[in-house]
Write a structure and sequence with these properties.
The protein is an alpha/beta fold and about 325 residues long. The chain has 16 helices and 10 strands.
């Protein structure tokens, strides 16, 4: 049984978000030896860093960087720790299972209140097209929706934005919390009427009794993906984290220039179908950059949503958790 199959089997016993995330990480790390501390010995004496990330095409730069040996070229030994998606990657950092995570801004922000040591280092990709609205066949208007499924963070934020865009009070719709692999099955069984989610789960819902109705940009939503670390680790490893970001930035350019190679890397790393991955890669802008004032403004808008929904009690200190200028100093 391969690692991806084991991870997906773990989802079948999922009863709570954090326990499932930790179960996934334990299983995907079961055959790994050695320390997770970057001070530990890696190949040829290189520091070792574990990067937690999801299993979908948006992580193609990290898959490609691993396949092409880009991390080793900058002097870091990296192990990719694949998770179920959603908040699980950032939870791996707070749990100490990984040193760096790749996560969407809204997903990470929802975790930063409870984990104030988290730091966003910079952006490595963004999109207003990759997440899509999937409606169950027979649902021809948003007004017919009675039940939706959502993942925490970005998924919930986009779900509310979609409903409000169509003049629907989100309180009038039952919104079930779930994980990405489970949601297309809920649609197929008729347990939900719609959802907003990234690939490949949008396409799988369309193939399982649904149809794609639109993209998040249609109702004014855009996400960015951050690389994140915990300050306790970062303060002694900024050079190491910077090297990781340099490798990811180089891989961003390779994905843009050669999506076929990126799709093949995703197939090797997580068994994503090549044709499916190549189709969706153009929906994502792969470009590394630092965080600026616009990111703080957008983060404040997202945090206000979570506070209003009573999902968090207060905003994280955005001036502290968003490291403006860090990428320019360490990752470029």
């Amino acid at each position: 049984m391969d690692a991806l199959t084991i991870r997906m089997d773990a989802l079948n016993v999922r009863r709570g978000r954090l326990p499932a995330a930790l179960m996934t990480l334990v299983l995907s790390s079961a055959c790994m030896a050695g320390t997770v501390d970057s001070a530990g010995g890696g190949a040829a004496g290189q520091p070792m860093v574990r990067i937690a990330l999801g299993v979908d095409a948006s992580y193609a730069p990290l898959y490609l960087a691993e396949e092409r040996g880009l991390f080793e070229k900058v002097g870091v030994n990296v192990e990719l720790v694949k998770t179920e998606g959603g908040p699980a990657a950032t939870e791996a950092v707070t749990a100490g299972t990984a040193q760096i995570a790749a996560n969407a801004d809204s997903t990470a922000l929802s975790l930063m209140v409870g984990s104030p040591g988290l730091r966003a280092l910079g952006v490595f990709q963004s999109s207003d097209r990759y997440l899509k609205v999937v409606l169950r066949d027979g649902i021809t208007s948003p007004k017919q929706i009675r039940t939706m499924a959502s993942i925490p963070g970005l998924g919930l934020y986009a779900t509310h934005a979609y409903l409000r865009h169509h003049g629907i009070d989100p309180k009038s719709v039952k919104i079930l919390q779930s994980s990405p692999p489970e949601i297309p099955g809920l649609l197929e069984r008729g347990s939900i009427d719609a959802y907003v989610l990234f690939e490949p789960w949008a396409a799988r819902g369309a193939a399982a009794g649904g149809h794609i109705e639109g993209r998040i940009g249609d109702f004014g939503v855009k996400y960015v993906q951050w690389l994140l670390a915990d300050q306790k680790w970062l303060k002694d490893n900024e050079d190491v984290a910077g090297k990781v970001f340099k490798a990811v930035a180089a891989a961003d350019k390779l994905v843009t220039d050669d999506p076929g190679a990126a799709a093949e890397a995703a197939r090797k790393q997580v068994k994503l179908p090549v044709a499916e991955t190549r189709k969706v890669l153009p929906e994502i802008t792969f470009a590394a950059r630092g965080l600026g004032d616009a990111d703080v403004t957008e983060s404040r808008r997202i945090v206000d949503f979570f506070v209003d929904q009573k999902l968090i009690k207060k905003s994280p200190d955005l001036g502290t958790v968003l490291l403006k200028g860090w990428y320019e100093q360490h990752g470029r």
